[in-house]
Amino acid sequence: MSLRYTSRRIRPGKLWSPPTCLNGSHTSKVTFGWQKCRSVASTASAEKVLFPGALNSEFTNTLNFLRPSNKKAIPTYRVLDQYGEVLDKETGVDTEDGEALTLYQNMVCLSIMDLLMFEAQRQGRLSFYMVSAGEEGIAIGSASALSPSDVIFCQYRESGVYMQRGFTLDQFMSQLFANSKDAGLGRNMPVHYGSKELNIHTISSTLATQIPHAAGAAYALKLQNMQQPGVPPRIAVCFFGEGAASEGDFHAALNIAATRQVPAIFICRNNGYAISTPTSDQYRGDGIASRGAGYGIDTLRVDGNDIFAVRRATKEARRRALEDGGRPILIEMMAYRVGHHSTSDDSFAYRQKLEVEDWKRRDNPITRLRKWLEGRNLWNEDKEKELRSRTRKDVLKAFERAEKEKLPPIKHAFDGVYEKLTQEQRLHIEELKDILQRYPKEYDVDQYEGGVKSLDQLLDEKN
User: Fold this and answer.
1) At a CB cut-off of 8 Å and minimum separation 6, what does 412 contact?
2) Among residues 85, 99, 119, 357, which one is catalytic?
3) Active site residue 341
4) What backbone torsions phi and psi does residue 268 show, to the nearest 5 degrees?
5) Which ranges carry the Dehydrogenase E1 component domain (predicted)?
6) Structurally, how many domains does the chain consist of?
7) pLDDT tens digits, 265-280
8) Alpha helices per DSSP H over 8-153
């Protein structure tokens, strides 16, 4: 009895077929272990069999169902305890004091910006906002451990990723107000940032769609890394919440990432709630990390309140993701969503306020890092007051500047769809222009940069 295996795969510039295995023999070198073929065991003394769908499964005559509830939960990696004390003195934190101070300042800045923008939305000055309270260490810590050239896909609670990569307060505010300086031309709702310069794809409202996008991008990067050996290799990094992991996109993405062995890191922020749904109603298994093992992916669970653990885990994950041409990594970052899901949500309708206040008091990434800094005499109450006062002023100044800016030109409602305006588009533009000019009291176009004249700019363009 024998197992015959043949397949074809496309490589850059040519078609390549792996060696054919017949009766356990190889005709040439095989690259990956999971591509190897062996004979099916045919003797009574054989201990294992290589079924096509289960590698190296041992035979047993004991009827024993695997029961996950009887197994130990996947451990959670941490470097600091909740009091800011280093657990392994020999290993330390892998972070210089100056860098730790910068990370702390960025987390405080993110926290203050979230607080002020949440209040601005309640005042009616912003239409929508989402805070990162309790999860600042995940976004800022992971972003600090990546290469600036790595391609990132965010969900909607990763403002810290943008901040750590250099997204300015003015850029944040311009996007939130959708003004004329918004890089997205005012076409997205608030908190849907994007930056080509920082290699971060624009955020989408649709849940989990960025996960398969990241898997596809990672496959493209794998080919680039192979074709450009002189250029530092890059990876794709994808952020999402545990609620997004309940979508089919998550499973499809991890499966294709595993089978194609792409250089990608999938970072799940498990903050306990998907909008109004607690994890107890989302899944029965051991979190999201247990799913990584099911897809054959290197997996780690990390204490998201420990920024040093987040950084070390991300650094090691990036190194592993580039090994042997590429491989996907799944990291489940554990946290607690202190804030409401968004400004459209009242989380006290489905959880006790006491529970939230207890988490605020007990542990969070900002407090834990501050304790470590104070333990090394790098921080004190006076520095804290000065930082918060200065940061608050900087955020408010950027807010005021953005609020005063005009809205993007009206022409952006039409351009960018086709390379050149179609005849149908021209008719639409002319009709809109006519309405705006005939009813000036009903339509205030002065708040838009260029007013009606911006439509003339489109109509004057030659096809």
Assistant:
1) 185, 186, 187
2) 119
3) yes
4) -100, 125
5) 105-410
6) 3
7) 999 999 999 999 999 9
8) 97-122, 136-144
